[in-house]
Amino acid sequence: MDSASRSSKAKAAAEEKNRVTNLVSDFLRKYRVILLGVLAAVVLAVIVVAIWTAISEGQAKTATIGIEKAEDALAAYQGEQDQSKKADLEKNLLASLDKVISSWPRLYAAQKAHTIKAQLDADKKDWEGAEKEWLAASTILPNDFLAPLALQGAATAAEERGANDKAAEYYKRLIDKYTNKSVGIPHAFFALGRISEESKDYAAAASYYEKIIAGYPDDDWTKLAKDRILFMKSQGLAK
Questions:
Q1: Does residue 110 fall inside a structural domain?
Q2: Is residue 65 part of a domain?
Q3: pLDDT for res 58
Q4: d(Cα 102, Cα 110) in Å, to the nearest integer?
Q5: Residues 153 and 187 in one domain
Q6: Which of 192, 189, 186, 174 is nearest to 220 (CA)?
Q7: 12-21, 38-47, 74-83, 225-234: which range is least confident on average?
Q8: Do the domain assignments include residue 75?
Q9: Based on the domain organization, do 136 and 95 belong to the same domain?
């Protein structure tokens, strides 16, 4: 390639570079307001996220302090022997729990507060109240470890008040949503089997027991499930 050709190509390349540079400059000048607006929006979004994160962390910290104080109040209530003082402590404890629930209704602290109220109701054999509180605790943070335990609590309370249909509903919800996520699944199957036996639906009962045997061969509930199947067969109630 001769020097003239090289010079011509170099000139063309330089002109192309200048053309691209000018196009970019023209674009930036023409749309600088839009670009600045987009940039401002991005910066604002980052600031909003940062503020929201700080607020959320602050709320979580405050909520945690609130529920810790409530747990201290619970310990004082449980350790008090004087019934008059105990009644006052319970009143103050319930007020503290209600404040936590109303202040941070979607945080773990509220979930924990509902479980404490459920335990208080259960201690007084107020199974309807306990069921309500356990159920509320199960819905606040459904992916939290406490949610399936709360759902089991609601099922147990429903059984205690004689509402087997409701209990079965909660156990089935537990199985559908938390299989492989909760240690209570074999017990849920066993409870459904027992409820089915009580309603004389022995085929359904056997089916629930067999699910324990097939899915959880090493679980403590498996032997009980086998025993129930053997009993029903010995009575001619199951095949």
A1: yes
A2: no
A3: 56
A4: 8
A5: no
A6: 186
A7: 38-47
A8: no
A9: yes
Tell me the per-residue pLDDT of 189-212, one tens digit each, with 9 for 90 and over.
999 999 999 999 999 999 999 999
**Token reading at 89:** 């402590």
- Range with the poorest average pLDDT among 24-28, 42-46, 55-59, 95-99: 42-46
Q: What is the 3-state secondary structure (H, E, C) of 10-44?
A: HHHHHHHHHHHHHHHHHHHHHHHHHHHHHHHHHHH
Supply the range of the domain harboring residue 223. Answer: 183-239
Residue 210 one-letter amino acid: E
Name all contacts of 77-83 with Cβ < 8 Å and 24+ positions apart. Answer: none
Residue type, 197: E
Cβ atoms within 10 Å, residue 217: 8
Distances (CA, A) of 99 to 71, 109, 144: 13, 11, 22
CA atoms within 13 A on the CB side of 173: 19
- Transcribe 127-150 into DSSP letters: HHHHHHHHHHHHHHSTTSTHHHHH
Angle between helices 185-198 and 146-160 (to 10 degrees): 20
